[in-house]
Known about the structure:
Layout: E1 22-25, E2 28-30, H1 32-49, E3 52-59, E4 63-66, H2 72-79, E5 87-88, E6 96-98, E7 102-108, H3 113-116, H4 119-135, E8 141-143, E9 167-169, E10 175-184, E11 187-194, H5 204-218, E12 223-226, H6 232-235, H7 237-244, H8 246-251
Parallel strand pairs: 1-3, 1-12, 2-3, 4-5
Antiparallel strand pairs: 3-7, 4-6, 7-11, 8-9, 9-10, 10-11
Helix pairs in contact: 1-7, 4-5
Amino acid sequence: MLGTENMWMIPHVTIPGFKMGLKHFSFRKEKGAENMATDMWLLEKTEQWNCMTFRRYGWAVPQISFGYGQKASWVEKETGQNLSQIIRRPTGGGIVRHGNDLTYCMTLPRGSIGEQMAPIEFYGLLHKRWGEALDEQNISSALMPCPEKSKAGIPGDCFKEPVGRDLMDQSGQKKLGGAAMKRTRKGVLIQGTLELSDWPNIDHGIIEKKFITLIAADLEESISPADWPDALAEERLSWLTIYESIHWKKDRKST
């Protein structure tokens, strides 16, 4: 389960011809606002470094996050929690309950293979590779088919309302994984989660290792370990202030 695992890293992989690279950061377990601030810090850094980043992270306390476009008052009513307890993500999507899920962040620099893919194509590729990683742990899965007509409106409860190319169980009835993307001039931020509560003893680190190896090969990037800088807390402080703010949670305002 998250929070009890070793902070391992994947050995450096060198593949001729790969130019941008993928920085792989170690597991961190923090509160929701800190997690959101770190993800945005990575998005800023992916532009500076001109490379992909990836991290898997945990939650210091069980917490609910909700999507950028959702109405705060509806989320409070739906979850039974007030805004001081929950966190608004910088990405879209619906309500997600965190605590024992496998939560991850990936960033893509402009000009990279992943950034140039159509969003729905990249979304499907992500979940195909997570599905293959789960398959090695004897967890069968399938991709949710895309509907003939897109559903309008903002998602409600993420794991109760699967959409096209979400990761589902083998029966196609239960959602196992979803993600949301934020595209900016700095690059692309992906925030995703796998709900694996039916397998409480599974090692999330092993699943992560397989996934990142597969996706790096797809995107023609080499993987290298990356250390969290001592200055992380200072460098992400402006983001942390935003995500802790009631103004952000209520109205998406930075102050």
